Amino acid sequence: MLTYSFENRGKEALYTWLYKCMKDDILSGKLKSGEQLPSKRSFARQLGVSTLTVENAYALLQTEGYVSSLPKKGYYVADIQPAFHRLQTGEVSSPASAVLIREQPEERQYFADFSSNQTRKENFPFSVWTKLIRRVMAEQGDHLLKNPPGGGILPLREAIAGQLREFRDMQVSPEQIIVGAGTEYLYGLLIQLLGFDSVYAVENPGYQKIWKIYQAYGVTCRYIDLDHSGMRPELLENSDANVIHISPSHHFPTGITMPVSRRHELLGWAAKAEERYIIEDDYDSEFRLSGKPIPTLQSIDRDGRVIYVNTFTKSLASTIRISYMVLPVPLLERYREQLGFYSCTVSNFEQYTLAAFIRDGHYEKHINRMRNSFRRKRNLLLDAIRESPLASLVTISEEDAGLHFLMHVSTKLSDEEITERAAENGIRLTGLSRYFHGGEEQTRSAHTFVINYSNIEESRIEEAVERLYQACR
Amino acid sequence: MLTYSFENRGKEALYTWLYKCMKDDILSGKLKSGEQLPSKRSFARQLGVSTLTVENAYALLQTEGYVSSLPKKGYYVADIQPAFHRLQTGEVSSPASAVLIREQPEERQYFADFSSNQTRKENFPFSVWTKLIRRVMAEQGDHLLKNPPGGGILPLREAIAGQLREFRDMQVSPEQIIVGAGTEYLYGLLIQLLGFDSVYAVENPGYQKIWKIYQAYGVTCRYIDLDHSGMRPELLENSDANVIHISPSHHFPTGITMPVSRRHELLGWAAKAEERYIIEDDYDSEFRLSGKPIPTLQSIDRDGRVIYVNTFTKSLASTIRISYMVLPVPLLERYREQLGFYSCTVSNFEQYTLAAFIRDGHYEKHINRMRNSFRRKRNLLLDAIRESPLASLVTISEEDAGLHFLMHVSTKLSDEEITERAAENGIRLTGLSRYFHGGEEQTRSAHTFVINYSNIEESRIEEAVERLYQACR
Which one of B147, B176, B349 has the shortest CB-CB distance to A101? Predict the structure, then answer.
């Protein structure tokens, strides 16, 4: 039986390793011309890899002429003489070419997806946005083609500064605002600005994408546990971190809103030494559904240590990539010296459209409409749970800040069992344990699920709750 | 006379250092309440810093209440008692707030700018682009709000793959194409992919922005000299570089097109060891004005070592941020594992618009029109030089690949003198020496200027040449 070991593949991808092993065997004659290869599925099972891996390896071998396929028959070792000849004379297309490399398989369809926060079509202001784009384009102005400052066009930054002043009580100058194509991009800029030697403290549990970005940049991360007020200061003090990355308005996934006292504690930590900074991620503060808003760290920072980050990807559409950060004055000059050469990553056309959208008052109306829609959706969902037998099994918490809440289930089932049973009922659920760093944390958060309701269709809420009940009971 | 030393400021920005020094002196009483401060301009001259630095320091001091200003009188040390009190009780706004931090002063206006490559208004296809955006928006489709794969929407990647097949003879699968908001962003992704321990060989002379990106990421760069065929292989062999970053179709700024033999040499270098890669930057290959196109390195690479990078920022507009790279198959799986979590940085709306623009044949027409326009502009400029007394002073080279050429001037004037004299005549020029790493190289390229003609108005060409002559004679 044909088999290969993947032990010594090193950094090689699974399928290129498999491709190379098989090519060697074909060239050495160990695999003979005309010999039939195992089916992709059975070969994958036997090797303990995915079918995609085998498929891609076969595709590479086929492109290079080592293997040929017969419809409905399968794959055969080719007569390698001509293929080898072609390789030598350069007639063959390169191994990198014309190979079908499949991306992730089709996503499963759900009746209700409590883990998605994609904007729903009815929540995007298509007609106003289209009208504004047309207006921007109709001007055909020189300004549309003029390279903007690295931080973005001034009218947009002025509009954002106005928003921050009015709704977040933040006094910032437009020049402190840096516009970029998504917060992921801005986090990358911040690592370049604050240094690859900095040690970054992130929230545990937390938004895993942030961890992945720090990993991709090869910088050191410390995973700091939370208490009911957010990141624990004593753990922070005992770490070697000099930059903390937090979402105090509405922590994801726990939903915690950091109280003012903890905010001052963290600011105190930052002020205690040079080069300490706080990245304040305010990603969905627009959607606080009740209770009074708490001042941002940025607005109570008197030492220039807070970098405020926010995004339009939540409040407008996740597929329009516009986010921004507010640099404290002491970092601004360093930014200009070291990173001022970067071009702004957002198209001028969309920057001018968004600037008009905010300036003409559409953004505020849009946010109010969205907030009402989310509040109604949350209330419908909470009511439906209250009226269902599910109510006796679950406890809801952290439901006041926007877009998601936590549901704790009294059950003997494991999180995996509940997630799997929910999926069988067409419901996508994510356990809170998924957001902890390191496996040993999982028991602590067991039986708690993150319920993101922004993407749920109202008409499906009742049915979705019934299905949830079926999964949890 | 009030003065401060900037010697011990360390990492501090000039103006925050100045602000702190002055604040200390105010608090200690060395600067007394009511004392007039020197004017911004004279203080700046005396300290040897820019007026902006003093202005920003004064603004900070004023915001915090240490200094007050009287219209037409100047700045005075405030009575600090109340200000200090406000600081203690937290009534004052933070130092980071409400400060006017000016960005770069207004750019100087030129009669003709031979260093700009901003798209001219008449070269952007406003009406077609607007029509297509409207069509895309009118669909109001779910797909517009659906998060695309990290590499971009498939229709755009298919359209790009089609272009590459037809015009660059490259056989690539759409899945190998990664769309991103500008090549600067993609270079950053590549550093994350190829590793912070990799050593990057760049062209000297070369495009300085690329060097700055590698510096911002803190990776090691080797500056490899060129001969008439491009990067010198023997210097490369003797370096410890494992990734080379080149623009073989049309090197900036020398205009060199790398011959096929050198391309094979570099591919041979890459094949000699694991983890060697070539980043092929094909940034303006669409605009080759005469002579047959040379195959890309990507299309003759049989070992999967070439990463091809190209952009629409040159061919469409520098303010629409859409670029892409083609990953070789062996890197694709690594990309997905390590960086697959990143969201695409380009807005769906513009991706769909560009996909339609290419698919419907507009892009090809646009490129042909642009190529003709650039060719005509180049010819007009070369003719004007030929017919001017300037002809006896200059030699032109590398004029066949698009958008810029080199002009060597026989002169006893220094490059700085010529640039300055040109500027006085309203002409912006950049010396080739500017693109060398390290000062000692400057003599080697003296008296050669990079003439970027894409942004020149046709009606100004004759006059611009006359002014150039005045600067060079």
Answer: B176
